[in-house]
């Protein structure tokens, strides 16, 4: 059924779908003009429990994320997903040890140093530990399926927390719409079913926000402790979670005043406890410099921060086009422009996201998955914007509601066309070559899966080794490399190795070479 729906949009019938949408909008215009019908719709909606609608959205949100869930790990950003999945695979092979995360890349590509133990010190492997236990407990599904399901489960929890936050600061309908946007923005559908730690980090950060809101409302230390635990875990996964904290300072300042914050021992202790695990993890990491990838480039490695290209890519291409589908900017703008004191919380959340994009400038510009972190704030503002536009009395109600409905339809339609290519497997040859390596070589073989440093190919081989020839081949052989596999048969390097070493198997898609002169 999912494939049928996709073909409907992608084939020659997309124009019929567009005509249907226009007819639907026209019909809504006519219906909205009938006040009695509008009242009847409002009456029906008032009788439907809000939690039933939320549950329905969560179920549908789960279903739409199942599309392509069994696909090989060779879709959009497969290089980053492969690194994450690789840590879990090594845990399955060698046993779980949270203090020594390892993966399959031995090369100097990530850190500039030989990494013959395959250390992978990026995020604390909370995601990988959960991934590991799911596979061990329910081995029916593959590593890739469980990795995606784990992110999907995280997204569903995030949507529920967004509903709670929206209900607290907007209204119950504002919370529902906010959760709806988080669940169904096409960009977020894809990036909350990937094998990456970001969806789980977002969930933990949102849980920390909600726990702290509960603490502010009730003054119960238990909620403060919950906020500490959730934020500490979020920071361990990704330090970017710190950019979710500006709203917390706002809530505290509103309750006790800015001048009294330093006198609150309970809050100061909470802040200290939050960052201690992160600091300890970072200190521990320094013992394994070969396993720490280059990270300084993420800040402003190419000096793009606040230059015209920075604004174009982040606010023109990513947020406006890729996420909001151009038209979503209308309700988003209303959510910002209509000021209400109860929603100042959102302004501080947006401030945190602006700081995040400004500080982590180069990474945000280069990689779209970095914007996964900003989707909750966008969803909440969109939820507020929908409520404001629907209830707007300054302009013609019929026109405003019609524009709102059309804007939302275009948000999803344009957004879908932006991300539909993300699901495609553009290089199936690396999967075929990976299966060949798995079939032809010993399980403990060390290989080179030449793919310009991209570890997605190496991951498909289920072997450890190098994703690129980064130095003379004889030196790599001395370091234990035994096989070479390539999907680029015309590359001079591949041709050289085919002539010099033993070709085990060659097809029109790939070649597997044993790096030995013994024929």
From TrEMBL:
It is a multi-pass membrane protein. Its main location: membrane. It holds the Pfam family PMT_2. One of its GO terms (biological process) is lipopolysaccharide biosynthetic process. It is found in: Cell membrane. Coiled coil: none annotated. PANTHER family: MANNOSYLTRANSFERASE YKCB-RELATED, MEMBRANE PROTEIN. GO terms for molecular function: pentosyltransferase activity. This is Glycosyltransferase RgtA/B/C/D-like domain-containing protein. Keywords: Cell membrane, Glycosyltransferase, Membrane, Transferase, Transmembrane, Transmembrane helix. Residues 144-281 form the Glycosyltransferase RgtA/B/C/D-like domain. GO terms for cellular component: plasma membrane.
């Amino acid at each position: 059924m999912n494939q049928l729906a996709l073909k409907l949009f992608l084939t020659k019938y997309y124009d019929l779908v567009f005509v249907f949408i226009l007819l639907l909008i026209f019909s809504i215009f006519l219906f909205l003009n009938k006040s009695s019908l509008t009242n009847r719709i409002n009456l029906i909606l008032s009788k439907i429990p809000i939690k039933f609608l939320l549950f329905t959205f969560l179920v549908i949100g789960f279903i739409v994320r199942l599309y392509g869930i069994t696909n090989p790990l060779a879709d959009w950003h497969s290089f980053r997903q492969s690194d994450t999945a690789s840590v879990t695979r090594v845990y399955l092979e060698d046993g779980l040890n949270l203090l020594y995360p390892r993966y399959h890349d031995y090369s100097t590509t990530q850190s500039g140093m030989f990494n013959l133990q395959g250390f992978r010190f990026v995020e604390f492997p909370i995601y990988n530990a959960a991934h590991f236990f799911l596979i061990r407990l329910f081995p029916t599904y593959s590593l890739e399926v469980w990795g995606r399901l784990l992110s999907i489960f995280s997204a569903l929890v995030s949507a529920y927390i967004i509903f709670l936050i929206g209900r607290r600061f907007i209204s119950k309908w504002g919370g529902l719409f906010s959760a709806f946007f988080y669940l169904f923005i096409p960009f977020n559908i894809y990036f909350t079913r990937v094998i990456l730690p970001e969806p789980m980090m977002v969930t933990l950060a949102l849980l920390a926000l909600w726990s702290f809101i509960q603490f502010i409302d009730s003054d119960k230390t238990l909620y403060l402790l919950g906020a500490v635990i959730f934020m500490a875990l979020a920071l361990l996964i990704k330090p970017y979670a710190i950019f979710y904290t500006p709203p917390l300072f706002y809530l505290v300042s509103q309750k006790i005043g800015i001048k009294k914050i330093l006198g609150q021992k309970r809050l100061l202790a909470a802040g200290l406890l939050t960052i201690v695990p992160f600091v300890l993890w970072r200190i521990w990491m320094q013992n394994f410099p070969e396993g720490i990838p280059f990270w300084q480039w993420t800040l402003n490695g190419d000096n793009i921060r606040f230059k015209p290209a920075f604004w174009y890519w982040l606010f023109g291409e990513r947020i406006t086009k890729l996420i909001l589908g151009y038209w979503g900017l209308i309700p988003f703008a209303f959510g910002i422009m209509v000021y209400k004191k109860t929603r100042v919380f959102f302004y501080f959340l947006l401030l945190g996201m602006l700081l995040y994009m400004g500080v982590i400038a180069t990474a945000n510009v280069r990689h779209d998955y970095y914007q996964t972190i900003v989707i909750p704030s966008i969803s909440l503002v969109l939820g507020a914007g929908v409520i404001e536009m629907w209830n707007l009395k300054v302009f013609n109600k019929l026109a405003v509601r019609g524009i709102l409905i059309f804007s939302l339809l275009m948000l999803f339609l344009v957004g879908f066309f932006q991300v539909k290519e993300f699901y495609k497997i553009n290089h199936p040859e690396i999967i075929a070559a990976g299966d060949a390596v798995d079939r032809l070589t010993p399980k403990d073989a060390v290989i080179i899966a030449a793919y310009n440093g991209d570890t997605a190919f190496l991951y498909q081989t289920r072997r450890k080794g190098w994703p690129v020839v980064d130095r003379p081949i004889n030196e790599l052989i001395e370091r234990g490399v035994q096989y070479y596999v390539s999907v680029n048969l015309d590359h001079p390097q591949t041709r050289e190795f085919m002539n010099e070493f033993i070709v085990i198997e060659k097809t029109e898609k790939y070649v597997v070479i044993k790096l030995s002169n013994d024929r």
